[in-house]
Design the sequence.
């Protein structure tokens, strides 16, 4: 098993067993591969929640007024979430994504 996979399993097991939430600080304190895995999980959780709340699907999960659609990637989105939407290192990572989607209606267009 790769070191990356072991690290991701340990991180998720730790959060699950303590009832904790992945925070922005958690994502920023690990290596790049684990960081992107944490962001992917948080993004999916936020997307599912906002789609249920809004009653419609997100069409552009990695775009908005900060990122041109052709330049949007999970990596650039992770950076933007950390810089603009993580108020503190204790902000739940999925909450930062949820706030992004709830204020950027272009994701639904």
Sequence:
């Amino acid at each position: 098993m790769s070191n990356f996979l072991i690290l991701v399993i340990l991180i998720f097991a730790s959060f699950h067993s303590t009832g904790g939430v992945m925070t922005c600080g958690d994502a920023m304190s690990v290596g790049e591969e684990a960081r992107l895995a944490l962001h992917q999980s948080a993004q999916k959780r936020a997307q599912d929640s906002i789609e249920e709340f809004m009653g419609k699907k997100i069409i552009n999960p990695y775009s908005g007024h900060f990122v041109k659609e052709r330049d949007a990637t999970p990596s650039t989105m992770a950076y933007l979430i950390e810089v603009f939407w993580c108020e503190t290192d204790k902000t739940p990572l999925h909450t930062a994504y949820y706030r992004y989607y709830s204020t950027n209606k272009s994701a639904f267009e």
The chain has five helices and no strands.
